Amino acid sequence: MGNATPPFEMEGLDHLVIRCVDLDAMTHFYCDLLGCTIDRHNKEVDLLQLRAGRQLIDLITVDGVLGRKGGAAPGVEGRNLDHFAIRIDRFDDEALHAYIAENNIEIVEEGPRYGADGTGPSVYLRDPEGNVVELKGPPDPA
Amino acid sequence: MSVKAPFTMQGLDHVVIRCTDLAAMKRFYCDVLGGTIQEEDAEIGLYQVRVGDHIIDLMPVDEPSGRKGGPAPGKDGHNMDHFAIQVEPYDDDAIREYLSGHDVKLGSTIIRGGAEGEGPGIHIKDPEGNTVELKGPPDPAYN
To answer: What are A71-113's pLDDT values in tens digits?
Structure first.
């Protein structure tokens, strides 16, 4: 058994890396529809880093330098990441639904959910490759 | 289509990992890495571990929520290659020594861009083969 306590403290998430097949479709979804911006594109290792507020969502293609190391493309089931959540600054239910419908994005489920800073409204969307992305609004005092 | 989204993204909130051995995963994320259990909902099968500002949710594949996603993830073919947790302070030697003492599988230290700039990060494996990067603060030498 090693030391009882770690020589560091965890401050929070920094980024997550999604393995994907169609980089253009994924970039369109995360940037054009959800509002990410391209932070950097490391072409040496085929890593596209998208800024999502204070953190990053990284995309690697399964046939790229990094992606190849992880084997086949993810299947429809048996995924290691069930979903991930992005905190959004405001949750205008009507505007959000209009926007989602207009852009033909699939809603998986919705409702009040518990998040890192309390319970608030959430809508779960499916990205072009089947990953579920939760858009989480501010905590609701109600 | 598109027009402008009626919201602005502020950052990540949580990631939800499908797992098989909940006890081993809790030991790793809490006892070894220092997370704390925030909330446990056995009815839906969701166990929330607080890591600083955010949450890592553990979702056993044989409980109600986890079952919806089919079988347990395999060794590869993951949809999430890895995720990174910001740690402070970042002392590569001390981290390696500490984690070795807990039989954690250690990978290489890689200098790559994180959310706050270029800095070192050590890649490790959780008990179920997910890659977790412990990311240090940006290093002025690389920025």
So the answer is: 999 999 999 999 999 999 999 999 999 999 999 999 999 999 9
Strand order across the B54-60 sheet: A107-115, A118-126, A132-136, A81-88, B9-19, B54-60, B46-51, B36-41
In a domain, B143, yes or no: no
Whether the CB of B43 is below 8 Å from some CB of chain A: the reply is no
pTM, entire model: 0.96
Residue contact A116–B82, C-beta within 8 A? no
Q: How close does chain A come to B5, measured CA to CA in Å?
A: 6
Which structural domain range is residue B22 located in? 8-135
B106 and A CB contact within 8 Å:
no
pLDDT at B142 over 90: no
Tell me which chain B residue has its CA closest to the CA of residue A2: B101
Pick the residue of A79, A104, A109, A114 with the most B CBs within 10 A to test the interface with B by mutation: A79
Q: pLDDT tens digits for A18-57?
A: 999 999 999 999 999 999 999 999 999 999 999 999 999 9
* Residue B34 lies inside a defined structural domain of this protein: yes
Q: Residue A64 pairs with which residues in a beta bridge? A: none
Beta-carbon count within 10 A of B56 CB? 25
